[in-house]
Amino acid sequence: MSKINLVTSYPNPDTDGVACSIAMARLLSTESEKWFAAILGSIGDETAFILKQLGIQPPEAITSYDEVAKIMLVDTHHKVQLPLSFPFEKVTTIIDHHPNGDGDAFPLAHIVNEKVGAAASIVAKMYFDKQIKDATMLSLLGFAILSNTLNFSAPSTSDFDKDIFKQISANYPISNAVIDGMFEQRSLILRKDMYAALSADFKVFDTKLGKVGISQIEAYNLESLIDIKKSVAALKQIANEKELNLCLFNGVDIKSKCSLVLAANNASKKLVCSIFKLEKYTEPQMFDRILLRKTDYIPPLNM
User: Fold this and answer.
1) pLDDT value at 269 more than 80
2) pLDDT higher than threshold 90 for residue 167
3) What is the CA radius of gyration of the chain?
4) Which of 13, 266, 41, 202 is nearest to 120 (CA)?
5) How big is the CA angle at 80 (ends 245 and 259), to the nearest 5 degrees?
6) Separation of alpha carbons 137 and 127, rounded Å
7) Which of 53, 113, 127, 133 is 20 to 30 A from residue 244's alpha carbon, by CA?
8) Cα separation of 119 and 117, whole Å?
9) What separation in angstroms does the CA of 92 have from each of 6, 65, 88, 103, 129?
């Protein structure tokens, strides 16, 4: 059997990771060399909603790399976020926008890592640079940009993201009703078991303090929907299962543009105080601004 080439992201990827996988597979494929989008794990409600709106089939899940020749990795280059069995040596290219990646873990990879709000912005520019007018792919990337920047309200949003989205929407207008529907999908996760909800977007980071696990949920009306007691219990369970002494939850209320932070244990409470220079931790710890892992947690954890 001939080997295949894959574009993929971290396990249970968000809309940005899935959109970049699909769009790059389309962009890279030629008559002589085919690329396929694949996912590790599953996709979330928001991503499934957008793919359905655009008539795009979700990427197939991959469980074995035996028949894989080359891999393009998108929206991550952190070793700890990938399975132990991941074939790092098969990664030839990386497109990411997160700080403090593990470039040395990918010895053969050309790494493109820009300080922008969404990896989808980088991929969309590649489409524009090649003058490829693909309405479906560029619309998909536009939704991913909106998703990852929280409609340009996230602190990681850059002028680059705004400019690329402006170019997309000028050529392929994106419905406000669909945008609202996309963000409303994020609230669905809070109707699930809280352990499943917190596990859905949970990442472990290698920091100067050791491994730190951070769950993140972004939803409309988060404050009124979340059960604090159940969330803390779920966070403690995740920390115990993953043997993490430092484990946090970062919740973003898209509507009120506020954030709430929960800690799994006393060591994690001290960590919250250290990161945000607080005298005392309260539960939940509230902030009147949007916090995100890549902008508000990871930089101070590596200082």
Assistant:
1) yes
2) yes
3) 19
4) 13
5) 60
6) 9
7) 113
8) 7
9) 10, 14, 9, 12, 21
Please name which of 144, 142, 146, 224 lies closest in space to residue 190, comparing C-alpha atoms.
224
Residue 82 CA, chain-centre distance (Å), reads 13
The single-letter code of the amino acid at 13 is P
H or E stretch covering 293:
none
| Residue positions counted in the chain | 303
Q: Is 263 exposed, middle or buried (0-12, 13-18, 19+ CB in 10 A)?
A: buried
How far apart are the C-alpha atoms of 136 and 142, rounded to whole Å? 10
Which of 260, 267, 249, 245 lies closest to 290 in space, CA to CA? 260
Q: Is 177 exposed, middle or buried (0-12, 13-18, 19+ CB in 10 A)?
A: exposed
- CA–CA gap between residue 86 and residue 88 (Å, rounded): 6
Q: Within a 13 Å sphere around the CA of 75, how many CA atoms are in the beta-carbon half?
A: 31
**Helices 15-28, 135-148: crossing angle, 10 deg rounding:** 150
According to DSSP, residue 105 is labeled G
Helix axis angle, 15-28 to 45-54, nearest 10°: 40
| Site of tokens 């009306």 | 221
Of the candidates 132, 137, 6, which has an alpha carbon nearest to the alpha carbon of residue 74?
Answer: 6
State the Cα–Cα distance between residues 100 and 293, nearest whole angstrom: 12
On the question of a cis peptide bond just before residue 284, with omega within 30 degrees of 0, the verdict is yes
Which pair of tokens denotes residue 293? Answer: 């892992």
Q: What is the mean pLDDT of residues 263-278?
A: 97
- pLDDT digits over 85-122, tens only? 999 999 999 999 998 889 999 999 999 999 999 999 99
Closest CA to 212 of 261, 147, 287, 271: 271
Separation of alpha carbons 204 and 216, rounded Å: 11
**Is-contact 141 127, C-beta < 8 A?**
yes
Question: What value does the mean pLDDT take over residues 129-136?
Answer: 96
